[in-house]
């Protein structure tokens, strides 16, 4: 079978508290691990999407509206829906599976992920990824 769930692929989460949120695959585990014997992947996604910015907004208001909130999670393949989009954000050096062991590491990694996603948003590319799903 062809492996199409590769790193930097944009996915939509279908289950859990982040259902309907967009995420990016950081690393995939096609054969599972000893802890999780099923196919799963490490994803980093957006909890809070940026708001719409208009021309008359001040610089302070624009920067506030451009903020995102990120999350990191291990997700079963059955609980994600792949999309045709890819996201060229280098998260592999920041996000790893050992980050999820303690709360402190997870919080600091989520903050770094947030910075990188905000930088990507400000470039104006990947507009679809940073817009909220309407359903």
Task: Characterise the protein shown here.
It contains two helices and five strands. Strands 4-3-2-1-5 form a five-stranded antiparallel sheet, covered by helices on one side. The chain is globular, with a radius of gyration of 15 Å. It has 135 residues and is α+β, with helices and mostly antiparallel strands. The model has no long low-confidence stretch (mean pLDDT 91).
Q: How much helix is in the residues?
A: 10-25%
Radius of gyration: 15 Å
**Mean pLDDT over the full residue set:** 91
Q: Please, how many helices?
A: 2
Shape: globular
Largest sheet: 5 strands, antiparallel
**Through-space gap between termini:** 32 Å
Strand order of the largest sheet: 4-3-2-1-5
Question: Could you say which structural class the secondary elements and strand pairing correspond to?
Answer: alpha+beta
Number of β-strand runs: 5
Report low-confidence residues grouped into runs of 5 or more.
Answer: none
Strand content is 25-35%
H/E series, N to C?
Answer: EEEHEEH
Give descriptors for this structure:
single chain, 135 residues, alpha+beta, 5-stranded antiparallel β-sheet, 2 helices, 21% helix
Annotate the secondary structure layout.
Elements: E1 9-13, E2 22-29, E3 40-48, H1 59-65, E4 69-76, E5 80-86, H2 103-123
Antiparallel strand pairs: 1-2, 1-5, 2-3, 3-4
In brief:
The chain has 135 residues and is an alpha+beta fold. The protein is built from 2 helices and 5 strands; from the N terminus they run E-E-E-H-E-E-H. The longest helix has 21 residues, at 103-123.
